[in-house]
Amino acid sequence: MAVVHGISVNEALSGVFGSISLTAWICLLLPQLLTNYRAQSAEGLSMPFLLIWLFGDIANLGAYAARALTDPSPDFAGALVTGIAPTATALAAYFCFSDLVLISQCLYYNTLTARRARQRTTSSATDASEDEPLLRRRRASSGAALPGSQRRNSMRHEESGFDPIRRVVTGEDETPDSNPALHNALSIAAVYIVGALGWFVSYKAGAWDTPESPDLPEAKSTVAIIGMSLGYLSAICYLCARIPQIIKNYREKSCEGLALLFFLLSLTGNLTYGASVFSYSQNADDIIKAIPWLLGSLGTMVEDCIIFYQFSLYAPKQEAKTHDVV
């Protein structure tokens, strides 16, 4: 096996891919948080999606904590990115905290949206006069029956000042001076560059120097079994989490309110995590240890691709305006 400055090529590749994955995960929720803030709405997100994901991150935190007690070796399959299991545990805790921030933001905006809806209903009932044509009343309320129309109408009329910014963030901007595809591509490229540089800096700082291993519990100990069980539980949660979001998008025939970059970063993090595991070792025992994390990462990539297809399928269609030509 080739060795570069004290570590093998496989270890170097694993470290680079792992650092890229970490960078993607750290930045993961920022696009969606910004999208919600600028739109002043979180109606595009499925709350069951976020809650199941949070539960998966909590189980993942427990799995890494157990792994920190049984195997602190520089193996990315068992310890995220740096190979230091306590660091991986701290990162898993950060992911849980980030989930709670996003969930809190969604609850806040959903409460505001419900309050506005009640105010509109009360105002309409107060202002409606007895001699108002019935047809006009029906026309005013007919849009509520259309899938996703209530969210679009409220965001268009009430938050029209945020609409141009929201379209840029969610990839729906149609103005000539905006190129969301380019912006997303540059963001993903930046994640790769920053992640690779981050690994290089950590390597120069000695993060990949192998410490003396202390006495550890047996691999078949109760702690190890609990850790593996929590790993599988987190994988199941990650695989199930996106299903409510996919169903919501299908029912409303819309992906409005979702940040495309959010799912692109998720795909990047999962892809580079899998690459890191397989780069580090092709040994069957190492792969078996990483199966829960591989299932959770690589399995959700398929569901992310379904969501990408929904973005394309439900994107606003630009109608030809030939009838406007004199």
Automatic annotation (TrEMBL):
One of its GO terms (cellular component) is lytic vacuole membrane. Pfam families: PQ-loop. Keywords: Membrane, Transmembrane, Transmembrane helix. It is a multi-pass membrane protein. It is found in: Membrane. GO terms for biological process: vacuolar transmembrane transport. The chain crosses the membrane at residues 12-33, 45-64, 76-97, 181-201, 221-241, 257-278, 290-311. It comes from Apiospora kogelbergensis. GO terms for molecular function: basic amino acid transmembrane transporter activity. Its main location: membrane. This is Vacuolar amino acid transporter YPQ3. Residues 155-170 have a biased composition (Basic and acidic residues). Belongs to the laat-1 family. It comes from the Eukaryota. Residues 119-177 are annotated as: Disordered. SMART domains: CTNS. PANTHER family: SEVEN TRANSMEMBRANE PROTEIN 1, SEVEN TRANSMEMBRANE PROTEIN 1-RELATED. The keyword Signal does not apply. It catalyses: L-histidine(out) + L-arginine(in) = L-histidine(in) + L-arginine(out).
